[in-house]
Amino acid sequence: MRDSFHKDLDTISEQLVEMTRLARLAMSGATTALLEADLPLAESIIAADQQIDALSRELDRRSVDVLARQQPVATDLRMVVTAMRMSSDLERMGDLAKHLAEVARRRYPDCAIKPVMRSTVVQMGQVAERMVAKTGSVIAGHDVDTALALESDDDEMDRLHEHVFNMLTNSNWNHGTEAAVDATLVARYYERYADRAVLVGRGVVYLVTGRFKQQS
Amino acid sequence: MRDSFHKDLDTISEQLVEMTRLARLAMSGATTALLEADLPLAESIIAADQQIDALSRELDRRSVDVLARQQPVATDLRMVVTAMRMSSDLERMGDLAKHLAEVARRRYPDCAIKPVMRSTVVQMGQVAERMVAKTGSVIAGHDVDTALALESDDDEMDRLHEHVFNMLTNSNWNHGTEAAVDATLVARYYERYADRAVLVGRGVVYLVTGRFKQQS
Predict the structure, then answer these.
(1) Helical H runs in chain A?
(2) CA distance B190 to chain A (A)
(3) pLDDT in tens, B166-202
(4) pTM for the predicted model, two decimal places
(5) What residue ranges define each of the domains in chain A, with the CATH number in brackets?
(6) Given Cys at both, which of A96, A158, A203, B193 links A193, Cβ 3.0 to 4.6 Å?
(7) Which of chain B's residues have a Cβ under 8 Å away from the Cβ of A81?
């Protein structure tokens, strides 16, 4: 019975890591699609989101099945419930990458990212990819230090997000309203993606230490 | 044992209904704060969000405790797991109302909502309040028909959201970039709030029918 339970947990953990891999691919592709106004790439990112959704649903079904069959308590129970939350966060990260690709598609054949925004979006994409890569290794290795380091990555993302807002509102933005709307949404999607990565990291910290850091 | 379990479920259900009440108050206040540039009201909405957060954490603790003590299976298990998801959706609705209040605060003493946007924001607020009120009665009464009706409310919100985007990008927007950024975010927050209300409704449909409608 115990062995079967830990086999289930291993499978759940592997599926979570696979979700981080897909969420990373989606983010990487979405950033490129945005920067290069690459319509076929944007379309493929949008279509691929259903893979993450399907994995999330399967993981939820498996978790409920484990709860019903194995009736875990204490730490074991905490693991299953936390895995379900992380699955939901990763599914949402996939959605946010899809939303970025949708901005690229909506603006095609124009590029949604004006030259003035370009280097900030490049950086946001890099921070986002770094964060999702960390969530994968954090889940696989129950690595609390790396999980906590996600908080400072998130601070960096918040600064980039703030920078976009300053560009839009404090300086003499002369790239039109449409580009301002795109920039507002794009910055928000990156920032939310980073927030979710932090929540996944906190889930692992909670599993290992039994203490959940409150959402700020 | 069974009686104790159903008492727990009743408490969880009551807490969810209380969360809908708080999420509705927050939405109502946030919309007024936005339209009237009412700083004290915005501040109070922002501060009150911690009540919803605390209720959500308490509900999660109680749910995990119920899983551990009662070891529910089948429908009973589904109820507890679904309640946790709904708690997370309602907590997020509170956050989104807070974000609206933050826009009002950021723009004070100016009004974040330009006259041209006013009637659309009034309507978005009305649809949002109607939806959260429905989620409360849907949870309390396990009312599938009303839960399904949330989907058409959400269509109405999507149309309003689309209308804002058309105003911003298709017509001759001459209210400045700052107002365009505010309008983009405000419309997005209302739209996400409605999406979450739909998810809460789907949770109830799932509980009653055993079938979960896939996220579109």
Answers:
(1) 2-36, 39-70, 74-107, 115-141, 144-169, 176-209
(2) 14
(3) 999 876 888 989 999 999 999 999 999 999 999 999 9
(4) 0.91
(5) 2-209 (1.20.58.220)
(6) A96
(7) 63-64, 67, 84
